[in-house]
Amino acid sequence: MPIKGFTRRGADFASWIKWSHLDATWSGLGNDDIAFRGIIADFKFIRIGWGFFAPGERPQWIWSATLDTLGPQPGKGWRKAIGLRWLFPDGLVRETKTTSAGLCDIIIKLYGEFELTPDFTAGRMPIIDQIDIVDAEINGSTIYDPVLKIAGSRPCPAEFAEPPTPEPTTSAPKTGTSGGSALRLVDPLDDTIPF
User: Fold this and answer.
1) Domain ranges of the chain
2) Which of 62, 153, 163, 183 falls 20 to 30 Å from 72 in CA-CA distance?
3) Among positive and negative, which fits the CA dihedral 74, 61, 71, 138?
4) How many whole angstroms separate alpha carbon 68 and alpha carbon 7?
5) How does pLDDT run across 81-116, given as a tens digit for each residue?
6) Four-residue CA torsion sign, 34, 87, 82, 101
7) Is 138 helix (H, G, I), strand (E, B) or coil?
8) pTM of the shown model
């Protein structure tokens, strides 16, 4: 099913593994400059929704129940977001949750390409490689985006047999209200996440 209604502009955050548009590197909890080759993307449980960030507070997430319906913006300051798990060659599963326009566009493009293959229908998962970095001028600053490509596929690994474990919260959104049948999540505060 195609991802619909998802055009993103602005903001950036990713948990566990983050792409730096300024340094052109992947980093994550205690790991800097992570190599992005031979990575398996969990397109079985990819999520779209909304992210909210406030200084000094943990990020908040509202995930849509399906990929073809993005609920209404919950309130001021909420930005469209994508959540995706990656299985690295070292056996670690890392998750990206991001509101970055560039990274969201890249993930949606990869998902759209893979969705059209027989491997997608067969329940296989794509193997992703970063093949390049491109730069662009935005408001007088140079930013960098990774160029990712599908390098192959493999059967769904056991690590992706179940959906990501959500951490539900009962706190109300900072602004606005949650819409539709979305699931509201809050990441646990972890001061080791590089912001």
Assistant:
1) 18-186
2) 163
3) positive
4) 13
5) 999 999 988 888 888 899 988 889 999 999 999 999
6) positive
7) strand
8) 0.75
